[in-house]
Prior knowledge:
The structure is a single chain. This protein is an alpha+beta fold. It contains 15 helices and 16 strands. It has a domain at 183-221 and 302-433: Peroxisomal Thiolase, Chain A, domain 1 (3-Layer(aba) Sandwich). Helices cover 36% and strands 19% of the residues. Strand 10 and strand 11 (237-238) form a beta hairpin. Helix 1 (35-48) crosses helix 2 (74-81) and helix 3 (99-112) packs across helix 15.
Amino acid sequence: xxxxxxxxxxxxxxxxxxxxxxxxxxxxxxxxxxxxxxxxxxxxxxxxxxxxxxxxxxxxxxxxxxxxxxxxxxxxxxxxxxxxxxxxxxxxxxxxxxxxxxxxxxxxxxxxxxxxxxxxxxxxxxxxxxxxxxxxxxxxxxxxxxxxxxxxxxxxxxxxxxxxxxxxxxxxxxxxxxxxxxxxxxxxxxxxxxxxxxxxxxxxxxxxxxxxxxxxxxxxxxxxxxxxxxxxxxxxxxxxxxxxxxxxxxxxxxxxxxxxxxxxxxxxxxxxxxxxxxxxxxxxxxxxxxxxxxxxxxxxxxxxxxxxxxxxxxxxxxxxxxxxxxxxxxxxxxxxxxxxxxxxxxxxxxxxxxxxxxxxxxxxxxxxxxxxxxxxxxxxxxxxxxxxxxxxxxxxxxxxxxxxxxxxxxxxxxxxxxxxxxxxxxxxxxxxxxxx
Length: 436
């Protein structure tokens, strides 16, 4: 059901600056950076661009889904390593794919309600470092082993060790599955393809377009203002999103086999988001903080929304979250200049576009009188998205807001909405406006 709550924001809230790391595609083994290292590197560069001290922040809020074992409350780890000092509180939020946007929304609400003036917020994920866990059989065996005192007891325990004990639990795969409905995120994408009759060819064509748009953005230098280079301990540097496939084509993608429904499916690795490591961090400020620290302004947060829906249709979350914003702001679809809908799957983005065009869906699911409207594809994800540059789940929500603001600035446009689908059957959206 679409919520109709009134926005509780009272004071204007500005995004004054933000940066992100290059998004690094996972290569089958742990990548060069833990999550906190990604955030600290980009955070240092962001803070070095401003004259105020890190201790000036009222709080630090970070979204992260799978922090490492040495990164409990990863926001606090990041804040201390950035030199914010022991007196600046920090906390971590988790809303699956929208964790980074949730961090921004928490900062937005706290500043709007007068509880804070200056906040560092964003998201981070090192998906290549997702945990590999012992299964329950092994956990129980280890408990028995720890109780063994004599050699006889230890030998008896060893005699009970079987192959089933050594089967690992892959944290990433479990995390991308819904435990309530028993479907993976890819299977929910297949549901949308069937519901809206989205063909394999349409998905693959959209995926190719995502790579082409990212390639153009890199070639034109459009991402330079938001990306900070990464440096590892072996002297290597990382300058750009490395998931880009410049040679991608519909013909090449057609050769890939479906992953989630091997016999009848349409969703493949080529038209799905990539498993990726990355971080994005933004500075949010009140009007008083902007004046006090003489800060620039990228834009203002106009509204935000969260919605729930059937977990088996989770990819439609954006339309459920964006619709109430349009109603509250009294915006029409064609009065929004640019859109960012996170590309979890090509079919999921296409399904969102189709859902707003379909009268039956809008009337039944969104309580609308008719179709909400049709998004101009030339104004949607104009520089690519998760299919081409990756989807580090904790960071993507912050990245799309940051990038949307740069798109508005580049095109001298005014209004934008960023949105994500969220595993478990939710959607999140944030509306921003460019000042001036």
